[in-house]
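Reviewers of the previous submission asked for a worked example of the structure-prediction workflow described in the proposal, so we include one complete record here. The input consisted solely of the amino acid sequence. No template or homolog information was supplied to the procedure at any stage.
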Amino acid sequence: MRIEQLEYIEAVTRLGSLRRAADELHLSQPALSETVRNLERELGVDLLDRRRSGAKISDGGRELLPHIIGVLDAVDRLRQAADHQHRTSRTVRLGTVNAATVPLLVPAIRAFRAAHPATQVEVVAAQEAEIHRALLEGRFDLGLVNYLKGDDLPPEFHTTELLRGRAVVCLRPDSALAALRTVGVEDLLTEPLVVMRAGYVMHRYLHRLLAGRTPTFSYSTDGAEMGKLMVAEGLGATVLPDFSVIGDPLERSGALTYRPLAGDATEVLMVVQRRLSGPVPRAAHDLHQLFVAEAAAHRPPPVPAAGDPGAAGVAS
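From that input alone, the workflow returned the following structure tokens.
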């Protein structure tokens, strides 16, 4: 028994005649009739009622029709699922809060492309809450998000820590703050600040750090990458995890530098997450492993806390 034999019976039933079914299927009428006869012999049932006026579905065929339709529907669902799997396996969808994008994400994607040249990576910048929604709804395969040490991790996700660092002040080398070994809150308030929008971990961190005090002027932006560009263009300073600054091309070229925050040792985590339920596409699993490997290879040296003997040795 072949699927096309069942499709032929369905076409004869739907169109009401063997001739019209043959026209739609682009077959000769004798070829269609012979294919149906082979199925009839296999089943031991006359599926068509053949008369001089033409052939139509028989009473016996009509009784079997619901089963035939059920098989064809199941085959159609199988084909759709296979097509979806084929398309989704060709794309890995990644949500990121855009911290450590250049030091971590770019090397991982470069390595992924070398191993999966036919698979695309869709990178979407979003806030943590949006990334979590997209992961649960299956719109993202992986998510890169930040937490502060001590935050509760959502139980519906598999979470792997990639990087752990401290918050630092990101500034231009010609900033007055760059002359300091460590930057205190009062010092920070003398500069215009580039602040992450509400919904980002670093917004929450800075709000807690300032404790109600306000800077001379502030800008609000989405994500660390735009914040670093604004700082490099002389618009002020920003506070970011050290792993978002160390190794960034702007820092390597001397356009940016960083200083530890005085009196604060809060740790910031970068993690990769995926939902616990449902299968993990092979490509997404491989990208996950590359993030782990790249994080180990590119983990920046720890930034000394204020008061540590090594604090004076932070590079400018």
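The longest strand covers residues 157-171. We consider this example representative of the routine output the project will generate in years two and three.
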